[in-house]
Design a protein that fits this description.
Layout lengths: L14 E7 L9 H5 L9 E2 L4 E10 L2 E14 L2 E6 L6 H13 L15 E8 L24 E17 L11 E7 L3 E4 L2 H5 L5
Antiparallel strand pairs: 1-6, 2-5, 3-4, 5-8, 6-7, 7-8, 7-9
């Protein structure tokens, strides 16, 4: 018996990344001025988000069978973004360079909040054309299904900054493309699961 509605898990290949500088001051230079439009670039791969909660063991006299286990700090693993290398698109490299300059207090306005090298990153995951509709009338390219292109999951990473930047190898015997990778450290994430949460993801 055919299913009348699709209950497949969300696919992992249709997503959009928006990198948002958080500086709000009036000094110079600004990250958006140095790095360009970070929100307009696409990515081929994003590593998963994860959190590890520290366990603190506490031993008590008279309780000899096992220690009490208390919650310690939470540590958020770095997230890596990968994309091809394109002519005159140096946003990720310049973000990394801006961090380096800021750390050395070089340039003008180095004490301004506008020099903040951190960004928030919002990721939206969209419907796959099949999982957007049902098996009798799946979503399709002519837009007849209103669910086509709806955001089904959103994530926000807080206070991100470049931890590592890398370019792929060069090889005269190969015909592949150059890939750049940016690994960011962050201080937590929020996952929006419902339509109401997704609509408010930018303000979280």
């Amino acid at each position: 018996m055919a299913r009348s509605a699709v209950t497949d898990p969300i696919r992992n290949f249709k997503f959009k990344v928006n990198i948002i500088p958080t500086g709000k001051g009036s000094g110079t230079p600004r990250l958006s001025q140095v790095a360009g439009d970070l929100g307009s670039i696409g990515f081929a791969v994003m590593s998963g988000v994860s959190v590890q909660n520290e366990m603190i063991g506490y031993r008590e006299g008279g309780m000899n069978t096992h220690p009490h286990k208390l919650v310690g700090q939470s540590d958020f693993a770095p997230v890596t973004f990968s994309r091809g290398v394109f002519y005159d698109q140096a946003q990720l490299y310049r973000w990394q360079q801006f961090l380096h300059s800021w750390n050395q207090a070089s340039g003008t306005g180095s004490t301004s909040v506008d020099n903040d090298y951190r960004c928030d990153i919002v990721v939206r995951v969209y419907d796959h054309p099949v999982s957007a509709g049902n098996y009798q009338t799946p979503a399709n390219v002519n837009g007849t299904n209103p669910n086509l292109g709806n955001v089904r999951l959103a994530l926000k990473l807080y206070d991100c900054w470049p931890g590592a930047y890398a370019l792929s190898d060069l090889n005269a015997a190969d015909s592949g493309i150059m890939v750049q990778q940016l690994t960011v450290h962050h201080e937590g994430f929020y996952i929006a699961w419902t339509p109401n949460e997704i609509d408010k993801i930018d303000t979280k």
